[in-house]
Design brief:
By secondary structure, this protein is α/β, with parallel strands linked by helices. Helix content is about 45%, strand content about 15%. One of its GO terms (molecular function) is oxidoreductase activity.
């Protein structure tokens, strides 16, 4: 593990406005009296959406960051010029969640925002998916997120404020052919976001579920199969990063990127038979 702060100091630019979260609990100051969010831990920050989120927060100003990823070289390239420390660790390693949590709290003092962006994929028939890849995918996309949030959440609840951002996928809302395990893991993330949000009501800590569609990142190269569909077209990771920051500022519970992706999820919920017929036809 590497925990090397960037030489750059904290930005002097204005901090983001305070979020609007759930109702305050006993002894918790109203939202407009709390300190604005200013410290963040971003996982999966060495590439893709996580890297874009880190850059977006740094550009926004006022944020002190701890960035986690598996590739130290890429992680330090992302952190260059930011007020950021890097923690290179695979979150599926035993004890990695504790090391990342301790590094974040040790460097920042407190963590206002957690963006759980670490994730991997795999494409192909489920029957041909190696057991090791199933374990890796579920371990990275689901279990690592649960363990990390579990480690940081008591500190955020004690502070009476903060936000947890969980990166999901439209595959978790509607299911995607050839991505059965990935769809299952992301569906579990969506359910976790809902359940945790209910549990945290009144604590001052909010939960945001960000649901991207196809994003133009190295994710598809690493999953073993490129993205070949002509529609929907991939969106840049910066668009997802913008949505994350907007959701954090507004205290939004769930956001789809792009927004129209909410429609198939609603059709599936309202008319599952119709949805399944359309999905079988359209692939």
């Amino acid at each position: 593990m590497s925990h090397a702060p960037s030489p750059a100091g904290p930005s002097n630019r204005a901090r983001p406005a305070a979020e609007s979260g759930p109702a305050a609990g006993p002894g918790t100051p109203p939202a407009d009296q709390r300190e604005p969010l200013s410290t963040a831990l971003v996982t999966g920050a060495s590439s893709g959406i996580g890297a874009a989120v880190a850059r977006r927060l740094a550009a926004d100003g006022g944020w002190r960051l701890v960035l986690n990823g598996r590739d130290l070289t890429r992680l330090e390239q992302v952190a260059a010029g930011m007020s950021a420390a890097t923690v290179a660790a695979d979150l599926t390693w035993p004890g990695a969640d504790r090391r990342v949590t301790e590094a974040a709290l040790g460097h920042l003092g407190h963590v206002d925002l957690v963006v759980a962006g670490a994730g991997v994929g795999w494409a192909g028939d489920f029957t041909g998916m190696p057991r090791a890849r199933i374990d890796e995918l579920v371990g990275t996309d689901l279990l690592a997120t649960l363990h990390l949030v579990r480690g940081l959440l008591p500190h955020m609840v004690a502070a009476g404020s903060g936000r947890i951002v969980l990166l999901g996928s439209v595959a978790g809302s509607v299911g995607v052919r050839g991505e059965a395990v990935y769809s299952a893991a992301k569906a579990a993330v969506a359910a976790f976001a809902d359940a945790l949000r209910y549990e945290l009501r009144g604590t001052g800590v909010g939960v945001t579920h960000v649901v991207p569609g196809v994003v133009d990142t190295p994710f598809f190269d690493r999953r073993g199969a490129p993205y070949r569909r002509s529609w929907p077209r991939p969106v840049p990771p910066e668009r997802v990063a913008d949505a994350v920051l907007t959701a954090v500022r507004r205290g939004t519970d769930e956001v789809y990127v792009p927004g129209w992706l909410r429609l198939p999820a609603r059709v599936r919920g309202a008319a599952p038979g119709l949805y399944r017929r359309l999905a079988a036809h359209l692939g």
